[in-house]
Amino acid sequence: MTIKKISKIQPDFFEFSKENLLEVEKEIQKYPKTRKASATLALLYLVQKQNDNWIPIPAIAYVAKLLGVPYMQVYEVSTFYSMFNLSPVGKYFVQVCTTTPCMIRGSKKILNACKKHISENQHELSKNKLCSWTEVECLGACVNAPMMQINQDYFEDLDENKAEEIIKTLLEDKLPKPGSAKNRKNTAPEKERMTLLEIKNA
Ligand code: FES
After folding, report:
1. Which atom number of ligand 1 is nearest to the Cα of residue 107?
2. Fewer Cβ atoms within 10 A, N terminus or C terminus of the chain?
3. Is the per-residue pLDDT at 183 higher than 90?
4. What's the 181 CA to ligand 1 centre distance in angstroms?
5. Which numbered atom of ligand 1 lies nearest the CA of 139?
């Protein structure tokens, strides 16, 4: 996303709700008075939770002030972790894994499906504002590669057609059934095959 676009979407102001201010107090109290900065991650997480799953720039300045640390220190943390979103995300947030096992098994085609149906660039909302997507590193489901995460759910064993079908369903404001597109149970073999037990002397 360009700097011009990023500055357009920023609110003028951010502050925590009363409820979250109580949470902030609890988090800060976990650390020595001279180590308030240790609560940075927890406070950024609270910002994201309160602000529709993304962290605006005024919130970074606000958190820095609350913790008594330089703005840049909080900015560095918020830009380091891919779990923090620095621009608005859709109701359906698609994260496509492109690390080696997923890449070998076709994640590029899944990225193309996102570009075609959601938005040309990652971190941008679809036309109907329901979806956005991003590329991420390994999500720990390599054995069912390629895969993508949508909100809290994993969609695995994908191919281009299945990915397109899922994305089209999201754009209709419906969440498809998560799991393996090949109906595998967790990481079990496909159909009735039994690992090792079918092989003599294995
Ligand atoms: S490489 Fe994609 S989940 Fe691990």
Report:
1. 2
2. C
3. no
4. 16
5. 3
Q: Show the DSSP H helices in 30-159 as ranges.
A: 40-50, 57-67, 71-80, 100-104, 107-117
CA–centroid distance, 24 to ligand 1, in Å, is 34
* Cβ density class 148-158: b for 16+ within 10 Å, e for less: bbbeeebbbbb
Query: What pLDDT score does 6 carry?
Result: 65
* Alpha-carbon distances, residue 98 vs 14, 23, 79, 86, 151 (angstroms): 34, 35, 19, 20, 17
> Strands, DSSP E only, in 114-152?
131-136, 148-150
The answer on pLDDT for 97 being more than 70 is: yes
3-state secondary structure of 92: strand
Q: Is 139 in the pocket of ligand 1 (CB under 6 A)?
A: yes
What pLDDT shows up at residue 190? Answer: 74
Q: Which of 116, 122, 103 is nearest to 163 (CA)?
A: 116
Position in ligand 1 atom list of the atom nearest CA 146: 2
Angle between helices 40-50 and 18-29 (to 10 degrees): 160
